[in-house]
Amino acid sequence: MPAMDPVDRVRMAHACEDYAGQWAANPATSGSPSSVSRYVAEGCLSALCDRYTLAVVWAAVREHLDAHPEILAAGPLTDGQRAERQEARAAASRACLAEAEVPFREGRWAGALARVDRAELASPGLVDFARYRQIIAEHREA
Q1: pLDDT surpasses 70 at 1
Q2: Is residue 76 classed as helix, strand or coil in its secondary structure?
Q3: Which of 70, 87, 103, 117 could cross-link to 112 by cystine, CB 3.0-4.6 Å?
Q4: Helices marked H in 1-142
């Protein structure tokens, strides 16, 4: 089974940051890090479980939570707090995409692609980043 790619690791980290506190406070998990990890994996990251298997995602979530105990210590987020975090990620992603315009217009394809990559790592599901890469590739080949 392949290791999780960097974008999927970011998706996993964001799910931990946004939802692990809720699961830790849920009586069904008794606050057990292993149970919290499984619920985050199964509940928030089912698409990744389909791609990598539940065992791989569950282990990755557990590893992330072990490396960042402050996530569980912080407790549950409110819907507003979660929305603020998600909007901050989206804003960072949009800023990277805006920065990609300068190297794109100057024909510096590697610089444009690097900024698209950073945008995707900031907020993986925001837009179709493959389309941005395709546009850059088409102009590079023209």
Answers
A1: no
A2: coil
A3: 103
A4: 6-25, 33-44, 46-52, 54-67, 69-73, 79-105, 109-122, 129-141
